[in-house]
Design a protein that fits this description.
- With 343 residues, this protein is α+β, with helices and mostly antiparallel strands.
- The protein contains eight helices and eleven strands.
- The chain has helices spanning 42-47, 89-100, 109-112, 120-131, 142-162, 225-235, 275-288, 309-323; strands spanning 54-62, 65-71, 77-79, 85-86, 114-115, 118-119, 220-223, 243-251, 256-264, 292-299, 333-337.
- Strands 4-3-2-1-5-6 form a six-stranded antiparallel beta sheet.
- The longest helix is centred in the middle third of the chain and has 21 residues, at 142-162.
- It is elongated.
- The chain starts with 41 loop residues before the first helix and ends in a 6-residue tail after the last strand.
Length: 343
């Protein structure tokens, strides 16, 4: 027999499998031996009809980013963004959260992942109410207690920061005339709290150097002077915001990202009709030159080169697309070109 795939957090050994009895026969989940909360898996919930498989029924919201997953019939999770498969909510949540916060140790899976808008941990509780009401008390495992506690701390921290958001957001004002300079004051990212629909997506966020937080820069960047020249020319050619892509190569051995060409998008940001054709043309140019897509750039004609919340969301989207289904690190470079300094 071939070797079995590695078990994830929620994968159970035969002795712990809730669908098997000691004699090797199958028993309906929840009707046999008492299960701990950790023994209740997505397979158990599916088998007993508390949840159903479906596309985009699972979601994670973390630090302003939303991840969506499909629930498969075998209890596995397929991440919609990349098509990657995960054996458990904890494995998926940990992977997604580490993309945003590499220091994250665990994903608080059952407390973080929602099924049709409701946390999965609540479905565990419903299962216990239905099948093991007498044994429900005291069945929370040590690991799950830590997950629930960590998730509650994240939500409380986000709520505290959100409560003071009125001090960070500018008061509503009439639209400014085209070409008029708008005074934008960047805010620190940690003061933003949890993101919501009321937050101005154009809020600028102050940048922090790695050295300021006693960390090493994760990779080095080398850029052709021709790229900088074309990028600067494109960004200051018009008073409207522009965007373009960066082509180059990533060397995993030296951790060096080399940017060799810039590809301006010859369409307005709001022109969704022509954007696909423009991007396809750029992809063809990258392919013909033997280059890879390594990043993007964007202009702020009337504000300093600090990323907006919308820019940060775009950066995360590009980062996820460049990584694809690969588990290796693939950097995505985001460049901002601000207003020219006037005498």
């Amino acid at each position: 027999m071939g070797s079995e795939p590695a078990l994830e957090e929620e994968d159970l050994s035969p002795a712990e499998d809730p669908d098997a009895d000691p004699l090797g026969g199958r028993v309906p989940a929840g009707r046999g031996a008492v299960l701990t909360r950790r023994g209740i898996t997505l397979r158990v919930l599916l088998k007993d009809g508390l949840i159903e498989p479906g596309d985009s029924v699972l979601s994670i919201h973390y630090l302003g980013k939303r991840f969506v997953g499909d629930l498969l019939c075998d209890g596995k999770i397929r991440w919609v963004e990349t098509g990657q498969l995960f054996n458990s909510p904890s494995a998926w949540a940990t992977h997604c959260k580490k993309l945003i916060n590499p220091a994250k140790k665990s994903g608080c899976g059952w407390a973080s992942v929602k099924y049709r808008g409701q946390k999965l941990v609540q479905y565990k509780t419903s299962w216990l109410h239905k099948y093991q009401p007498a044994a429900e008390t005291g069945l929370v495992s040590e690991g799950e207690e830590e997950e629930l506690g960590e998730e509650e701390e994240e939500e409380e921290e986000g709520s505290r920061k959100t409560g003071s958001k009125s001090q960070l957001e500018p008061e509503s004002s009439p639209p400014e005339k085209r070409g008029e300079r708008k005074e934008c004051v960047p805010v620190r990212y940690h003061t933003l709290g949890s993101r919501d629909s009321g937050r101005d997506p154009h809020t600028l966020v102050e940048l922090t150097a790695f050295s300021a937080i006693n960390r090493f820069q994760p990779f080095n960047v080398a850029m052709s002077s021709n790229v900088l020249l074309l990028l600067d020319f494109h960004c200051h050619l018009t008073r409207s915001e522009v965007v373009g892509y960066l082509g180059g190569r990533w060397d995993t051995n030296t951790q060096l990202l080399t940017v060799l060409r810039a590809f301006p998008c010859r369409s307005r940001l709001a022109d969704r009709d022509s954007a696909p054709a423009v991007e396809e043309e750029i992809c063809q140019n990258l392919f013909m030159r033997g280059l890879s897509l390594v990043g993007w750039y964007h202009s702020h004609p009337f504000s300093p080169p600090h990323p907006s919340l919308q820019d940060i969301d775009s950066q995360m989207d590009y980062q996820l697309k460049l990584q694809g289904s690969s588990n290796g690190f693939q950097p995505c470079l985001g460049l901002l070109c601000g207003e020219r300094q006037r005498p």
